[in-house]
Amino acid sequence: MKYDVAIIGGGVIGALTARELARYALSVVVLEGAADVAAGASKANSGIVHAGFDAAEGSLKARYNVAGSRMMATVCEELGVGYENNGSLVLAFDEAQIGILETLLARGRANGVRDLRIIGREELFLREKHASGRAVAALYAPTGGIVCPFELTIAAMGNAMDNGVLLLTDFEVVRAENGKTVTLHAADGRAVSAGYVVNCAGAGAEKIARLFGDDSFTVGARKGEYILLDSAAKGFVKSTIFSVPTAAGKGVLVTPTADGNILIGPTSVEEPDFSTAIRRGAFGEIIEKARAICDGIPFGETITSFAGVRAYCDRHDFIVEESRKAENLFNTAGIESPGLTSAPAIGKAVAEKIAARFGAEKKKDFNPKRRAFSWFRKLGAAEKNAVIAEDPAYGKIVCRCESVTLGEIVNAIRQNPPARTLDGVKLRTRAGMGRCQSGFCQPATLETIAKEYGLSLGEVTKNGKNSAIVSGGAI
Q1: Which helix (H) or strand (E) covers residue 345, if one does?
Q2: Given this model, what pLDDT does residue 275 score?
Q3: What residues are paired with 217 via a beta bridge?
Q4: What CATH superfamily classification does 2-42+150-218+315-358 receive?
Q5: Which sequence spans correspond to the domains of the chain?
Q6: How far is CA 268 from the centre of its chain?
Q7: With 90 as the cut, is the pLDDT of residue 321 above it?
Q8: What is the CATH number of domain 84-145+220-311?
Q9: Average pLDDT, integer, range 274-300
Q10: Lower CB count within 10 Å: N or C terminus of the chain?
Q11: What amino acid positions are annotated as catalytic residues?
């Protein structure tokens, strides 16, 4: 089948672009090289909705950051995704750093960020009692927020699929035949034809562009490593707390997550191999820098660590444009921080340009709404009992740490986009994200996936090919 538009990449940019294109009378397919969406940087980042004071005035980063920040609450409400407008603070420790805050304040106001101001020690410690006692002032951005990045990505893709978009996973694009119609070939021999292609491949964006003969940009990568604290540390900080930024990025931060944990990181190291392995010594680096901005961090509540790789390009700004060298290609590339915040605005802008190109009108039956993944746990006791009476699977707890039921896991497997792996269930339901890190719930989750798909236990994977959990078909 030939599609009007093929999107390469199922990260947050690809997912929100697909959702926006689903509003129009266009046939759209998303090609994702991994076993699930949100497999790259969209799965492993800080989850910060940045206010917009960092990016240079007039840059695409500044434009899309502020626009995306203003859209985020509505997008999350429509998609049933947790979002919190918790505000952010950038700490200064001497007069020179106060000067940096003043520069950020002026830049943020020029970018259109609302209600920015510099606060003194008294107000700072009223807001955050664990902020470093050495801090002398802070830039306060009340429009800053937090969101679960993979929940946003999965929900946006699901909403796009509910509105007619097709998702093909394990579709690693290795060749493109470009004429009046583009034919995209996967490593496994499958092929898809489309009239137009949107490159949302993240770390692979340069590779995809070059398949079309477009060598107008290069992509590099920086790795960010994180420490995650258990929900027992909830409330340690309410705001997202930064130190003043450097040339390498915004530095280590301490922030609550949308799910009630405390997240600390990231580091920033060049990563030519795009590896997400955590380096020896990374924990010490994170801890040292975090202790410089917050006092008394309860590192004893650490439950896991992870790393993400964020792509950047040699233009030092976002690329959101029709290819200069290929007629049927639109590139979104170099979408580093604040890419998550910018994603709703980028997706909307790209979709509008492509719809205009096709002369496509908006569909009357587009439904922007989607039920939250966590709807069951938010019900009252009487409501839960009514659901359990209709489906007893909701009465069986599978993940004790996060109180996830069998019904929620089955629902994650059956709704768009369907979870096919252990990590896929984890990202949708939080089964395995608690203190025991799936030590209790993993066997039951494996058995449920195997039963739903008619697989042996040995065929169920953690995150796709070459990641089988068990051998021999038994636990």
Answers
A1: helix 339-358
A2: 87
A3: none
A4: FAD/NAD(P)-binding domain (3.50.50.60)
A5: 2-42+150-218+315-358, 84-145+220-311, 376-459
A6: 18
A7: yes
A8: 3.30.9.10
A9: 94
A10: N
A11: 50
